[in-house]
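Open question from group meeting: does this chain pack into something compact, or does most of it stay loose? Before anyone orders reagents, we agreed to write out a predicted structure and look at it together. Recording both the input and the output here so the notebook holds the full record.
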Amino acid sequence: MTDSTRIIQVDALARVEGEGRFKVKLEGDRVVHSEFSIFEPPRYFEGLLRGRSFRDAPDVTSRICGICPIAYIMGACLAMEDALGWEIPQPIVDLRRLIYCGEWIQSHVLHTHLLHAPDFLGLQDSIELAKSNRSLVESGLSAKKTGNRVMEVIGGRSVHPVNTRVGGFYSAPAEEAIRALLPDLERGEAQSIAALDAFSGFDFPDLEVNYLFVALRHETDYPIAEGRIVSSSGLDIDVAEFPEHFVERQVPHSNALQGITAEGQPYLVGPLARFNLNANRLPADILALAERAGLVPGCRNPFKSLLARQVETIYAFREAARLARAYVPPEPSFIDAPLLAGIGHGITEAPRGLCYHRYEVAEDGAIVSATIVPPTSQNQRQIELDLVSTVERFHDLDDDDLQWRCEQAIRNYDPCISCATHFLKLDVERA
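Structure tokens returned:
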């Protein structure tokens, strides 16, 4: 190793979900090697689904993640309903959007208030943050509790809900149970606006990255569980066309597959992509709050993803309250129809970005094959490139400060590492 060679390395990332590490090798002011390694063991969910009933897919896939189970439940339901040709009534669609708002709230707030905010204040964790800014942590815990409560009232429990199913819900919550959520939802929106104002005062590192943004886009609404797939390069496709434009590859240093475009480009999914591709779908006053905080359409600073998540939290509280006020229990709470053999596709906007499902179903309802592409897999290659951009931009920092900045760059993504390690190619040679 020469005097001009530096290695920035962390063997166990903190304040992320799951187990990962990174290594960056720097020669002078140029990065010659960067890798983001996910060493958490794969869990083979796609293999576990083969041969099971199509009805099992939502419950099985929800176990991929305890933070974002609704993303997997809804993606599985949409894909199965697509394969079977089922049309879902609007009241069920609205109830699904409401429970998904609960997931956005609790997941986003966990990240912004407890995992990511300490980075911008030079603090090691949320315990230190609570000592210096107790009200920020308390408001975050309160908001997260409300998101969990939404999931519990509709889904039966907040972690791995049990009331969801292909075709709808096993039972519809009572109208008064949904209305009872309104005071906390309204209070949560106000708390989230105050938190956005607090976050806007953070010192955001000066970095611009030329991302290829990819997200859903709905005709009228900010996308959560419906829409077409669009990109900042002009892509506009149906959900079923996802495999034609996006692929996964395995790399030697990671147990998670990396998502790239069919042309080999990395791309970015998640709050910053959604905001940039759908800012005009936000209510005008929420967009004004974003701009006041320093987040404007076209933003390419990855560190400002914190602001994008907080803007989406405000929107999720507002949208959940709107849906709660308009709620009428769907009757019936689910649909059922004859089984058909088919192939179905489903995609939703998990808190961390696009979560894609594809299933082939036999005539008896058995799952023939399953493909699940979680958001952290899709972002993994871009994370490695962000490390390159970050190190080259801030190479004048000493090693400890540069390591901190690299960890912060990874936490910009709120990576869900357990989600990403759902599959690993396995070659077996027997003598």
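Observations to bring back to the group:
DSSP finds 15 helices and 13 strands in the chain.
The longest helix spans residues 90-120.
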